[in-house]
TrEMBL record:
Species for this entry: Salmo salar (Atlantic salmon)
InterPro entries associated with the record: DRMBL, RibonucZ/Hydroxyglut_hydro
UniProt similarity note: Belongs to the DNA repair metallo-beta-lactamase (DRMBL) family.
Acidic residues: compositionally biased ranges: 435-444
Top-rank taxon, per record: Eukaryota
UniProt-recorded name of the protein: Protein artemis
Region (Disordered): 407-558, 609-644
Occurrences of domain DNA repair metallo-beta-lactamase (ranges): 239-338
Compartment annotation: Nucleus
Ranges of compositional bias, category Polar residues: 529-558, 612-626
Transmembrane segments: none
Presence of the UniProt keyword Nuclease in the record: yes
Amino acid sequence: MSSFAGRMKEYPNMSLDRFDRENLHARAYFLSHCHKDHMKGLKGPLLKRKLKFSLTVKLYCSFVTKELLLSNPKYAFWEDHIVALELESPTLITLIDEASGEREELVVTLLPAGHCPGSVMFLVEGAQGAVLYTGDFRLAKGDASRIELLHSGSRVKDIKSVYLDSTFYDPRFYQIPSRETCLHAIQDLVQDWISRSVRHTVWLNCKAAYGYEYLFTNLANEFHTQIHVNNLDMFKKMPEILSHVTTDRATQIHACRHPKGEDFLATRLPCGGSSTPLNIISIKPSTMWFGERTQRTKVIVRTGASSYRACFSFHSSYSEIKDFLSYLQPINIYPSVVPIGRTHADVTELLKSMCRDVSSSAVVYRPLGTLKRTRPEQQTHDVDRADWLFEGADLAPVRKRVMMQEATPTTLTNPPDDPLPFTPLVTGDYMDCTESNDDEEGEEGERGGEERDLEEGERGGEERDLEEGERGDLEEGERGGEERDLEEGERGGEERDLEEGERGGEERDEGSVSNSGPPPRWEEFFTTEILTDSQTSQPNSCSHTSPSHSPLTGSQTPELFVDDFVTLPSPSIPLSAGRGPSQADSMLIQSEDRCQGDALTNLEAWGEECGNHTNQSEPTESQMSSDFDIPSTPDSDRPGPDELSDLYRRLAAGEEVVTRTGSQSL
DNA sequence: GCGATCAGGT
DNA sequence: CACACCTGATCGC
């Protein structure tokens, strides 16, 4: 659970994912995703009241998050204060202190976080340097190198601080099977079961939270069926999800939940199911992990006669986090979660090793306050990375950012005894139990058993006996296939893991969201149209089939702006259309490579774009192009160039410049 | 009555 | 050992 207090040292005037206490005074709010533990205070009366009296306070988030948030009536009062931003599209945001008029400009970029629909990380660039707030994230090894806007030309941006989702930053959670692996394993299990007869039904025992949607959509695709869920409202603008879920109970795959959370019965679904008896298995998504030296085993574990746990994680594993950090090499890392059993000091200490060694850079002259670093050629966690360069100095074409490290999967953090070629293992190292084997602490393999017992009360003890090997003999002929599933970790699973280690990245580049599943790109699920349950056959949206989207920068499409422009924020201006490389930093940094976009040219581009749409307050091109020769307002001071361009930005954003300057001149 | 907090459960 | 969430009890306003 996030214990992040809401503010970053560098930019204390913005609040992220916390909306209570001190955060009530923030000048702008940011929501990384729509999970309750990141929304504390968001519906509080104090904040509500503040909004009433404020013209400038906004909540920034992704389009999908906005949609999910507003689908809950408790947050409806945010409607006029939410500014949805496109992914990977640097946006200038001006924080204004309404009392003093003091202003601060930031360039904020939303980066996909892979945690749940709409989840993003916030890259904030301003006077205090570039900082990255990760929110909650699950990124696979190598993903950081694929995020364009973490780079400046061919180099990794100089990230001062990372505010990190450290949920699994603990060697015990060294490895978590990849999304693809887990998905395939679940598919196999589902396949095996529902193919037996139409009465054979699978119940996905999911928590009440966003994040399982990609599981639903993939299963639905694979089996040409829809998944039964309780409610569809939140997905009404997300055809890619909506088309795969249903409130019609007549389907073989369910993810419905009963408010009273009754125990799972192998003959009855939470929704009541059909009038005739069904053969149901439950699959409970759970995080499974494997220690550094643990050989990986099962991705699916049978926990009872009709119940299974399947590996599923919303968060990056220890090694994934390390990969991420060693790529970015921030100067500071602040954990936002302290895994229990650890102290904040533990985690911070552990994280120190991932921080850039500043001693080497401290002596370097940094005329522009930013320094770029070439990306490490090879990911080793050692120190030989003092290879920073001055801005604009060397343009070594290191730009092939992807796929290099995939060939050498885990070398990152566990040097010599990398357990890479996984071999089947015998111990009960499955999920939810630690099976840690990080060097110092002993195994505690035994624990596995008991927690397994706990968890499903329904079935009494037998699962205990199922444990590992002997499952086979365990009952019923009907099972036949199951142990196969169980074993699955050893065979299918692994190979898959391996390959995915090797080529993980590329498949994402194909932009397909289907079965061989790269991390979902939820924003591509989004449309402005409101669809209904039955409109399943309308892939009208911005799906992966759209050729114009690079999979990495999958944009939410211009059409969004038709509807949303009206509510588009005053103080924010998209600085780029989301395609070029980081233009943001060209603003802050006079950067070498293709810095075609400075704030103003970008502004123009933006002006053109929205000039096509009807909108009262948006600037027209002619407004835009009149740039620096407007007469000054009668009794105002003649603004300097900076102020002026600033003014223009605000004009462009449709702000009420008069009022604002009034208050500002205090 | 509402919110915030905690305990307990899934 | 998780996670995200819900419920219900308690306390304070």
